Amino acid sequence: MADQNPDISIVVPAFNEERRLPATLERLARYCERARVAWEIVAVVEKSEDRTAEAAAAVARLHPEISVIVNQVQRGKGYALRTGVHMSSGDVVFTMDADLSVPEEFISVFLDYLAAHPEVDVLAGSRRHPDSVIEVHQTALRRFLGRVFSRLVRLVSASGLSDTQCGFKAFRRRTASEVYSRQTIDGFACDVEILLLAERMGFGVRELPVRWVNSPESKVRLVRDSIGMLWDTLRVRRRVARTLKARPFVAREEARLGVG
Fold this sequence. Notes:
The protein has nine helices and nine strands. It is of the alpha/beta class.
């Protein structure tokens, strides 16, 4: 790690990713080096059935900016993200999936947008944005379930976001620290909770278009994980309200005015 905070941290959760994760880490490292930003990558490996941890560690030995955290349990994407964000130190924290479905060049796109829009604290990639380009689509069944899930999210959470489940997101440092310290869902519905927390806490949240290349090796199990996501999503608004009652947050404007 550098003596001072890096410009960006990239948190990558991984489970059974021995084949894909090393290439992803190398691609991210090369991109950040070309972009000439101070960077770190935090790969969080959940207890896996393959050699994901060893494969990631081999890449990390070549790049001191990469650290590998091995969770001794397999609790889910939310738990892995929470672990990685807490260990990160960058001024902007990116989260992205191990398959790199959204290419690494969108790091600069998101950074430029944050620089030009100080009122925005969270950027979420959206596959359903009208300007997004979907190069390799998911299966028809996954697309159908995704549309149903997005409508459910808007109905249950009262959020206007069109795509909570795209893994490519960027958070300003303070936002990441405040939101993830309150995030509780371990499974895939963590994305809904994270964005809803950010909105309810008064942070500026915006969606941006992305280029998406679907990986056929998705780790989301259609039946089991969909049921878990549905159950967590149905409870997410109540869970967020309970969290913020127990741990209130003073939004930026309120803090500036001395209110709250």
